[in-house]
Amino acid sequence: MKITLTNAGKRFSREWIFRNLTYEFNSKKSYAIIGANGSGKSTLVQALSSSVILNEGTAEWQIDDKLKPETVHQHMSFAAPYFELVEEMTGKELLFFHSKFKKFINKLSVEDILSKAELTASADKQIRYYSSGMKQRLKLAQAIFSDVQFILLDEPCTNLDENGYNLYYNWIEMFCKNRLLIVASNDINEYKFCKEKLNMQSFKLKTF
Asked: Could you tell me the domains of the chain?
């Protein structure tokens, strides 16, 4: 899996969020997208997912052949604090529903994943009754255990306690080494394992 950005730029109205960004992301590597609040980390991650269209430059996704932007979602998973869960579903129902679109790695069952996320006792409880940390563990589990070529995580440890961080580190170590992993954060504890770092401050321009 390879993602190539060439002179990429994104703006909202007259404000450039980033510009002149040329970079390559490769499989079996972990990347941190870092920078202060407002530097464009989340916008870049959304562009890498193909859900946000660049205003200039290009983004290309390649596995064996180039992927069409509208098919990129089939090969990726994404977790972020601003993604809402279907709170009327139970944790078990949500993962089962998700598995109809994307299989889980290593033939893991829904029950296996709930156990790894320490949510077995709440498997049949509606997500609306989950704590914020429980919801975040479920989001991360849904993303990391999906059988996809690349994983995007935006502020992945939001609302996690110490035990949640330990689960997160364990999952990264055990299940992400052979895939492309991209973490967007300004907290080193969320990306300290990443070998490559892209600082968005270098591409932050405010006007034309």
From this structure: 2-203 (3.40.50.300)
